[in-house]
């Protein structure tokens, strides 16, 4: 059971890291951890302290609820938020325009 939980937690960390476009080395630098330790966590081969959890959440821009339990804020907004928070602010208007057009097309296709 513990091993499976570690694998699930590691998978969520990896998913968020990849959504942000971070390498393990980049995440390690942002979280002040060793990249080999990030790899160990992502593979579910090791556990970590509350301090490490806090560092990872801050570096990934996500909540501990998501990392530990898979509870996402209003659907999959945690991953979207993490992706956007790592983006250069000058690109946000373009992302907003694209997202708006996509959501509008979804609504139209449902009619």
UniProtKB/TrEMBL annotation:
Residue intervals passing through the bilayer = none
Which domain of life does the protein's organism represent? Bacteria
Instruction: List residues of the HTH cro/C1-type domain.
Output: 13-67
Record GO terms (molecular function): DNA binding; DNA-binding transcription factor activity
Gene Ontology cellular component?
cytosol
Q: Which Gene3D superfamilies match?
A: lambda repressor-like DNA-binding domains (1.10.260.40)
Keyword DNA-binding annotated: yes
* CDD domains per the UniProt record, alphabetical: HTH_XRE
Q: Which UniProt keywords are listed?
A: DNA-binding
- InterPro entries on file: Cro/C1-type_HTH (IPR001387), Lambda_DNA-bd_dom_sf (IPR010982), TransReg_Diox_bact_type (IPR050807)
* PANTHER family registered for this protein in UniProt: HTH-TYPE TRANSCRIPTIONAL REGULATOR, METHYLPHOSPHONATE SYNTHASE
The name under which this protein is listed is: HTH cro/C1-type domain-containing protein
Tell me the organism. [Clostridium] clostridioforme 90A6
What taxonomic lineage is listed for the species of origin?
Bacteria, Bacillati, Bacillota, Clostridia, Lachnospirales
